[in-house]
């Protein structure tokens, strides 16, 4: 006995069979389209993450540089040589743990520190010259308590996908170089309560 035909059921089976066949025949094209879409999406996500990291690091570097300028104003480097002042400032910034993208050791080996006395007629050297870090901009040349001091910090970022962005200064090796600064003048009373070891006594 032949079972009666059920048009609705037969049509559903035909549609399912045709869909599977079409899917099998188009699998190669779908793979190509998927790869073509996936690459720019992943690149966009990576670039977004790296841009966020750069902006966060730049903001954090600015904050810790301002804090270091306040430390200088409070007498943190009174009586120190230029080399000792460099170490004190670098340790103050890196040991704060604020620059979370860098370990303390990496920060201390990478952070550039400059401190110079400035007046209205002082020519301030550019942080980058000829695609390289300008050492004149990142050298401690004065710890004079009577002077207005310009503190500058610079930090080279690792290789990034977004290194081609022109809004950030970069070196010839293609890496971004973040720069921050702060103005400081030693509190005239600081020399009377500074302990002499780079720390400030509390009363």
Give the topology.
Blueprint: H1 7-25, H2 27-73, H3 82-94, H4 104-110, E1 112-118, E2 128-129, E3 132-133, E4 148-156, E5 177-185, H5 190-193
Antiparallel strand pairs: 1-4, 2-3, 4-5
Count of separate structural domains: 1
> Which strand order do you get reading across the main beta sheet?
1-4-5
| Separation, N- and C-terminal Cα atoms | 108 Å
Helix vs. strand class: alpha+beta
The coarse overall form would be: elongated
Strand share of the residues? 5-15%
| Secondary structure: helix percent | 40-55%
Average per-residue pLDDT, rounded, comes to 79
Helices and strands, in order, run as: HHHHEEEEEH
**How many beta-strand elements?**
5
- In the predicted model, the low-confidence regions spanning at least 5 consecutive residues are none
Main sheet summary? 3 strands, antiparallel
Radius of gyration: 30 Å
Number of helical runs? 5
Keywords:
5 helices, 5 strands, alpha+beta, 14% strand, three-stranded antiparallel β-sheet, 44% helix, two-stranded antiparallel ribbon, 203 residues
Walkthrough of the structure:
The protein is built from 5 helices and 5 strands; from the N terminus they run H-H-H-H-E-E-E-E-E-H. It has one domain. It is of the alpha+beta class. A 3-stranded antiparallel beta sheet has the order 1-4-5. The longest helix is centred in the first third of the chain and has 47 residues, at 27-73. The mean pLDDT is 79. The radius of gyration is 30 Å and the shape is elongated. Helix content is 44%, strand content 14%. It has helices at 7-25, 27-73, 82-94, 104-110, 190-193; strands at residues 112-118, 128-129, 132-133, 148-156, 177-185.
């Amino acid at each position: 006995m032949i079972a009666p035909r059920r048009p609705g059921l037969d049509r559903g089976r035909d549609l399912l069979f045709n869909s599977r066949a079409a899917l099998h025949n188009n699998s190669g094209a779908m793979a190509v389209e998927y790869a073509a879409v996936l690459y720019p999406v992943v690149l966009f996500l990576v670039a977004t993450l790296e841009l966020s990291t750069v902006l966060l690091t730049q903001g954090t570097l600015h904050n810790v540089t301002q804090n270091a300028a306040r430390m200088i104003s409070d007498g943190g480097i009174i009586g120190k040589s230029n080399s000792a002042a460099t170490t004190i400032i670098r340790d103050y910034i890196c040991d704060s743990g604020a620059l979370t993208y860098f370990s303390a050791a990496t920060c201390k080996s990478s952070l550039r520190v400059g401190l110079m006395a400035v007046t209205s007629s002082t020519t301030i050297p550019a942080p980058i010259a000829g695609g390289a870090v300008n050492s004149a901009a990142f050298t401690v040349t004065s710890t004079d308590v009577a002077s207005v001091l310009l503190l500058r910090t610079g930090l080279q970022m690792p290789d990034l996908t977004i290194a081609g962005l022109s809004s950030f200064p970069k070196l010839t090796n293609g890496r971004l170089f973040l720069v921050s600064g702060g103005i400081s003048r030693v509190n005239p009373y600081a020399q009377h309560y500074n302990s002499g070891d780079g720390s400030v006594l509390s009363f």
